[in-house]
Amino acid sequence: MVFGDWRQLTSRNPYASLSPLPMPVPHPRLLRRPEVEHLTGLSKSSLYERMARGEFPRPIKLGYRTALWPEGEVQAWIAKQIDSRR
Fold first, then answer.
1. Each residue of 13-43: pLDDT tens digit?
2. Which residue of 5, 12, 27, 45 sits 20 to 30 Å from the alpha carbon of 18, by its own alpha carbon?
3. Cα–Cα distance, 82 to 78 (Å, whole number)
4. 42 phi and psi, to 5 degrees?
């Protein structure tokens, strides 16, 4: 006969044999334009000029007037700018 962990067999906790819940996967954070401007130091017009030239990530459009940038893409762009000056 195969038994589980001896601690589960001797525990008085009725939930001891249950497996732990999986850790939640963190969702990517989405940034609004003012926060992107703050992080990058770029103005609104500079952001849109760079997007038009393909030099900056495009936002995700959630509505007619709502555009959000994934934080990871903005951070990757910042890291690329830092690496390019070396």
1. 666 666 677 767 677 899 999 999 999 999 9
2. 27
3. 6
4. -95, 150
Which domains, ranges and CATH numbers included, belong to the chain?
Answer: 31-86 (1.10.238)
CA distance 28 to 65: 21
Instruction: Identify which of 25, 26, 6 has the alpha carbon closest to the alpha carbon of residue 16.
Output: 6
As given in the structure block, the two tokens for residue 54 are: 């393909």
CA distances from 17 to 21, 22, 27, 30, 62 (A): 12, 15, 30, 39, 44
Q: What pTM was estimated for this model as a whole?
A: 0.68
In this structure, are residues 39 and 31 in contact, taking their beta carbons and an 8 Å threshold? yes
| Cβ(32)–Cβ(68) below 8 Å | yes
**Are residues 77 and 56 in contact, defined by beta-carbon separation less than 8 angstroms?**
yes
